[in-house]
Design a protein that fits this description.
Rieske Iron-sulfur Protein; transmembrane helix; 11% strand; electron transport; four-stranded antiparallel sheet; 9 helices; iron; cell membrane; transport; six-stranded antiparallel sheet
C-alpha cells in the first residue's frame, strides 16, 4: 500500500495537492533590465531622430496649408464642373490626412526615439500634505524635462506650428455650413413663374415628357423646364429640384384626402432627395413599388405616398403635384408643399410659412 510508483495521479506528482510547495510571500520580480536605444548612446542618432520628428511636424503644417488653400482658393462657383469638385475633394482629403498623420506620427516617434523609456515602480500614496503637493509638482516638472522639449527647440517650434494650424480646417468647415434651411430648402424651381407652369423634362438633356411617354413600371429622372438654361446657381437649383417620375396602376395607389389632383392617371412624381441625410434616392423596385436610398437603405412605399417602411428616414418623400397641359406634356401645378431634403430644426414652422 505504501508503493508510490503505481502511476496514479495522486502518487505520481502530476496533480498538485493542498499544502504542496506553499509560497509564504509573493516575491517582487523587480523590473526587467533596461535596454538602451541607439539614440541614448549615439548623439548623431539622437539628432537624426530629432530632425525626423521635426519633418513629421512640418508635414502636418504642409497638410493644413494644402487643406486651407484648396478650400479657399479653388472656386466652386455656380458653374463649377464635376472635375473641379473632385479635385477640391481630393486635395481636402490629402491635406487632412497629412495634417493629422504628421502630427500624430511625429509625437509617437518623438516618444519612442527620444523621450526616456525606463520603467519606474513606486508605492502609491494619497497627495494630501503640502510636501506631497510639491512632490507632485516636481514630478510634472521632471516629465516636462524628460520630454526634452526645452532642450530641443526644433521639435518645440514645429510642434507649436502644427498644433496651432491643426484646428483651422475644422473651423473653416464649421464656419461655412451655409444658411438656415428655411432659406434653401423651402422653395425650388418647380414653382410657377409669371403664372406659367413648369414642364417636367428629362435629366440631363431637358426634353419635355408627355404623359404618353410614361408607361406602367417605367421611371424617369426629371428636372424642371429651364434648368439647363440657368447661368448661375444651376447645381444648387438641380440639387433641390430633382424628381423621380413613375407610373403605376391607378388602383394600386393609396391617395390621401387633399392629394386627389396631385397625380395623373397613375403617374406620380416625388423628390429624389432622401429625407434622412439628403442622398439621392436612385433605385426603383418595379415589382414591389419601393424606392430605395443606397446610402443607408431607407425604403419608401410608392403606393402609399412614399411612406417610410424601412431605414432611418423619418418622413415620406415630398410629392410634386403634376398635371397635363393642352399639348399632353406633364407639368408641375405648384412647388412642393413641404421642404425637400432631410429633416431639420423647426421644420414644422417652415412648413407653416410655405403653406401660409
Amino acid at each position: 500500500m505504501g508503493n508510490h510508483s503505481d502511476g496514479s495521479p495522486n502518487h505520481s506528482g502530476t496533480v498538485a495537492t493542498a499544502g504542496q510547495n506553499v509560497v509564504e510571500k509573493f516575491q517582487d520580480p523587480g523590473l526587467p533590465p533596461h535596454r538602451l536605444r541607439l539614440a541614448d548612446t549615439d548623439p548623431r542618432a539622437a539628432k537624426r531622430a530629432e530632425r525626423q520628428v521635426a519633418i513629421l511636424f512640418g508635414i502636418s503644417v504642409i497638410g493644413t496649408v494644402i487643406f486651407l488653400v484648396s478650400y479657399f482658393a479653388i472656386d466652386l462657383g455656380q458653374d463649377s464642373t464635376i472635375a473641379t469638385i473632385r479635385t477640391q475633394n481630393l486635395l481636402l482629403g490629402l491635406g487632412t490626412a497629412f495634417a493629422m498623420l504628421g502630427i500624430g506620427t511625429g509625437i509617437v516617434h518623438w516618444a519612442k526615439a527620444l523621450m526616456p523609456d525606463h520603467e519606474v515602480s513606486e508605492e502609491r500614496h494619497a497627495i494630501r500634505t503640502e510636501e506631497d503637493r510639491q512632490a507632485a509638482v516636481r514630478i510634472v516638472e521632471d516629465i516636462v524635462e524628460e520630454t526634452g522639449i526645452k532642450r530641443r527647440p526644433l521639435i518645440r517650434n514645429t510642434l507649436l506650428g502644427a498644433v496651432a494650424l491643426a484646428p483651422l480646417p475644422a473651423l473653416a468647415v464649421f464656419g461655412d455650413l451655409g444658411p438656415r434651411p428655411d432659406n434653401t430648402l423651402a422653395h425650388t424651381m418647380w414653382a410657377p413663374q409669371d403664372g406659367k407652369l413648369k414642364r417636367l423634362t428629362r435629366d440631363p438633356d431637358g426634353t419635355p415628357i408627355k404623359a404618353s411617354d410614361v408607361t406602367i413600371g417605367s421611371a424617369f429622372h426629371v428636372i424642371p423646364e429651364g434648368l439647363n438654361e440657368l447661368q448661375e446657381g444651376k447645381l444648387n437649383a438641380k440639387a433641390k429640384a430633382v424628381v423621380l417620375l413613375m407610373r403605376l396602376n391607378p388602383d394600386d395607389l393609396t391617395i390621401s384626402k387633399g392629394r386627389e389632383t396631385w397625380s395623373y392617371n397613375g403617374i406620380v412624381a416625388y423628390s429624389k432627395i432622401c429625407t434622412h441625410v439628403g442622398c439621392p434616392v436612385a433605385l426603383y423596385e418595379q415589382q414591389t413599388h419601393h424606392l430605395l436610398c443606397p446610402c443607408h437603405q431607407s425604403t419608401f412605399d410608392l403606393t402609399k405616398e412614399c411612406k417610410v417602411i424601412f431605414g432611418p428616414a423619418s418622413r415620406p418623400l415630398p410629392q410634386l403635384p403634376i398635371a397635363v397641359d393642352a399639348e399632353g406634356y406633364l407639368v408641375a401645378t405648384s412647388d412642393f408643399k413641404e421642404p425637400v431634403g432631410p429633416s431639420y430644426w423647426e421644420r414644422d414652422e417652415h412648413e407653416r410659412l410655405i403653406n401660409s
